[in-house]
Design a protein that fits this description.
Elements: E1 11-13, E2 29-34, H1 53-62, H2 70-81, E3 87-90, H3 100-112, E4 116-119, E5 149-153, E6 156-160, H4 178-194, E7 197-202, H5 220-230, E8 234-237, E9 245-247, E10 254-257, E11 274-282, E12 285-293, E13 299-308
């Protein structure tokens, strides 16, 4: 169990959080949500491609490098920098092949973002089995060694879930798994009792129909059941490369997707964008306001929710 860190504006909790009464007055917290930047990869050594990476490398060279553009992602990050956000949430797929050098390059990119970042892995980041020291541990500064993790800022609890797993060729499924689901449910229940605004970040959407089966969250029903029992104020995901707004099945919990941060596409819902979320107290709950930003700073979609759950100090 990791206690709150009073010297850090974003505190850290691993599984069973230390209960601290919510403050009487909580300022607005502004989050930027982006996903799937698929940063330009360093050269891949042939020994690293004697596995599923070979197919992904072929796809990158034939097609994906022409639509996932570094300048597109840079323009998006620049717009975020003009928007005075508190934290940038990156919901996976920073890499293309999940190599050691890609993780290192992504760590440098995270460090250069215009605000404190938090990250979770995606399916590309977990493409093959490898020691954590070669991959996810390089991002520990912006996440944690164990999932789910939580960071708390002014009454807003950002919960990071890992749905990335190695899969067979031509598959991009995810799974949260029994052990992580148990920790997630206990964490959401305790954060809810504390009256915090629970913002959950996961790569694969925990809902059927948003991606093809071969890219789906295999235990989406079980994960949705966790949210139905324990609650959350909003759930953010990537993976689909679509800007979508739905809800967790059987609940009124908003489920918010975002297009790839580097994707160039003629279809409006596939064009690179980022979600600006403003969260502030409202009576005994929270108001969450969404503005979906295009690269040029214009807003393509707005929404707002009053979510119950905040307790009195």
């Amino acid at each position: 169990m990791t206690p709150d860190l009073p010297a850090d504006p974003i505190s850290s909790r691993q599984t069973s959080p230390v209960i601290t009464p919510a403050p009487a007055v909580t300022p607005t917290v502004t989050l930027a949500h982006i996903s799937d930047p698929h940063l330009p990869p360093p050269p891949v050594h042939w020994r690293e491609a004697l596995n599923k990476r070979a197919l992904s490398l072929l796809s990158w060279k034939k097609h994906r490098r022409y639509v996932h553009l570094e300048q597109t992602c840079a323009a998006l990050v620049k717009d975020i920098g003009r928007s005075d956000v508190d934290t940038i949430l990156v919901s996976g797929d920073l890499t293309n092949f999940g190599t050691h050098d890609e993780f290192a390059a992504a760590a440098r990119w995270l460090d250069a973002l215009p605000a404190q970042a938090l990250v979770i892995p995606g399916n590309h980041d977990c493409m093959v089995r490898q020691p954590a020291s070669a991959g996810l541990h390089q991002w520990e500064r912006w996440s944690a060694r164990q999932y789910p993790y939580v960071r708390i800022q002014n009454g807003v609890a950002i919960v990071g879930v890992n749905s990335g797993i190695p899969t067979a060729p031509f598959m991009a499924c995810g799974r949260v798994g029994h052990r992580q689901r148990e920790r997630l449910e206990a964490l959401l229940e305790e954060l809810g009792r504390e009256g915090l605004c629970r913002v959950v970040m996961i790569h694969h959407p925990p809902r059927r129909g948003l991606v093809p089966w071969r890219k789906s969250l295999l235990d989406h029903r079980e994960v949705a059941a966790v949210f139905r029992r324990a609650g959350a104020e909003i759930v953010l995901h990537g993976h689909s490369h679509d800007a979508t707004l739905t809800h967790i099945a059987g609940t009124d919990i908003p489920l918010l997707g975002v297009a790839s941060a580097s994707l160039t596409d003629e279809r409006p819902h596939r064009q690179a964008c980022w979600n600006r979320l403003s969260i502030h107290p409202y009576r005994k709950g929270w108001t969450i306001t969404l503005a979906r930003h295009r690269l040029d700073g214009s807003v393509s979609e707005r929404a707002s929710w009053n979510r119950s759950g905040r307790t009195e100090a």
